[in-house]
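Me: I hope this is not a bother. Any chance you could explain this protein sequence and its structure tokens? It all follows right here:
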Amino acid sequence: MILFIKYVLFILVMVCLIGAAVYSYTSRRAQNPLEKGAKRSIMNILLGAMLVSLSLICMFVFRGSTVNVIIEAVFLLIGAFNIFSGLRSYGFYSRNRKNETPLH
């Protein structure tokens, strides 16, 4: 069961890594600042999920010395903060994109 969880977390890390790279590239190519901000906030969410997954992988792979537990907890907190701030900024940009008037 632990081996299955490790594989699922590894796949999640790879999906988040590829997704973050794609959203990073598309945010740099976007012309509209609101679209650019929305894509960067999704990238932030994916990077936070990747950090959380990496810390969970470390918790399952390595034995828990005090230094390892502290570093894993810091990664977990930073990842959770990235997810939270990405969701908050995505809400801001999606509300403003919806209220944007098209220029014709």
